[in-house]
Write a structure and sequence with these properties.
The chain is α+β, with helices and mostly antiparallel strands and 152 residues long. The chain has 2 helices and 8 strands. A hairpin with a 4-residue loop joins strand 3 and strand 4.
Length: 152
């Protein structure tokens, strides 16, 4: 399991250079307007979205997990009464994954997901991150999408 921190950054090149030095690792995946790092120590998936006009630096948080760990989280969340959504086999953030989404009382999105493989597209985009019940949503907002749109 590894913690995921997704940030909106003003300048992706500058942020990639900084975080490469900070964690001593090269970028794991780099696409237009998007980069991620798979840091071993500390176990961190750092995701960067180039979004110069974003009002918040924090995009979302979550955990990258094995399938059984995601299922354990769902078994814990479902009976708790927390509003949540399960999306199997989605394409989001240049990845194929299965995800359990929930939002805290102030709207911060949490995701528990199983990474299944790389994808060639960012995936569908929602204005303010995925809304519960919006199975076409992805984990980024419009400000984080490269010019030309999500799949353009």
């Amino acid at each position: 399991m590894r913690f995921q921190l997704a940030l909106n950054v003003q300048d992706l090149d500058e942020a990639v250079a900084y975080y490469s030095k900070l964690f001593g690792v090269e970028v794991n995946k780099r696409k237009p307007g998007y980069a991620n790092f798979a840091v071993e120590n500390p176990p961190l998936k750092l995701v960067l979205f180039e979004a110069p006009d974003a009002s918040e630096r924090l995009n979302h948080v979550g955990f990258e997990m094995e399938k059984a760990e995601v299922e354990t989280q769902l078994e814990r969340i479902a009976p708790s009464g927390l509003e949540h959504e399960v999306i199997e086999n989605e394409t989001c953030c240049y990845a194929e994954k299965s995800t359990v989404y929930t939002h805290d009382p102030q709207g911060l999105m949490w995701e528990f997901y199983q990474f299944k493989g790389d994808a060639d597209s960012l995936g569908p985009v929602a204005t303010d991150g995925p809304a519960i019940g919006d199975s076409d949503a992805c984990c980024v907002d419009d400000a984080a999408v490269p010019q030309g749109g999500c799949c353009g």
